Model the fold of this input.
Amino acid sequence: MTKKNCLLLGRKQIVLDEMLPMEGLPHVNFFSGTSLEDVKKTFEQQSIDIVIMGAGLDLEDRLGIIRYIFDHSQSTTVHMKDWASGPPGMKPFVQGILTGLTGSAEK
Done:
């Protein structure tokens, strides 16, 4: 199976760093960022298959990121986490999305 490139976006880099590496997802290369500028830099350097955004990012920032992604890729999927599950809900959300898209499962 070809590895997928996944860009995780959140309000704080430390939260993203705590999530990486995620076990049970051997077919995923992870990248992370906290802003539209990080998204632009990553897209310039890598082909990104999946973008997952935490709810902590400002709505206007999230919308700008989505617009950028859709303007620059015809194959990247974008997934946005809910607000209600809070920071503890990020890892299960990411694992659920990636398990569904890659067929990998946490052991």
Residues 59-72 form the longest helix (14 residues). The first strand starts at residue 4 and ends at 9. Strands lie at 4-9, 28-33, 50-53, 77-80.
